[in-house]
């Protein structure tokens, strides 16, 4: 288990893997996302494939919390 500065903890069960995923990672743009060079909905397909192959199940995924301001400013400029 690891703890964040805000006191929130991430507890991994014995069947969980450190695969962090949230459905919001799949960005769509009213069907025109396929025109963009970056495949913004690939993560959902990756997770679906891993589940289909019985390599993971929904309960083995870790859903992230929103980052704290301090966490954001470690990697992003305050501007």
Query: Separation of termini?
Result: 33 Å
For the secondary structure, the number of strands is 2
> What number of structural domains do the residues give?
1
**Low-pLDDT runs:** none
Strand order, biggest sheet?
1-2
Give the strand content: 5-15%
Q: Name the helicity range.
A: 10-25%
- Major sheet details: 2 strands, antiparallel
Order of secondary-structure elements: EEHH
Mean pLDDT comes to 76
With helices defined by DSSP (H or I, 4 residues minimum), what is the helix count?
2
Cα-atom Rg, whole angstroms?
16 Å
Q: Based on Cα principal axes, name the global outline.
A: flat
Which structural category fits the helices and strands? mainly alpha
Organism: Caenorhabditis tropicalis
Protein name: Histone deacetylase
InterPro entries: His_deacetylse_dom_sf (IPR037138), Ureohydrolase_dom_sf (IPR023696)
Written description of the protein model:
The chain is flat, with a radius of gyration of 16 Å. The model has no long low-confidence stretch (mean pLDDT 76). With 79 residues, it is mainly α. Strand 1 (2-3) and strand 2 form a beta hairpin. It has helices at residues 42-52, 69-75; strands at residues 2-3, 9-10. The chain is built from two helices and two strands, in the order ββαα. The protein has one domain (14-75). A two-stranded antiparallel ribbon has the order 1-2. This is Histone deacetylase.
Which features does this protein show?
5% strand; flat; 2 helices; mainly alpha; 79 residues; 23% helix
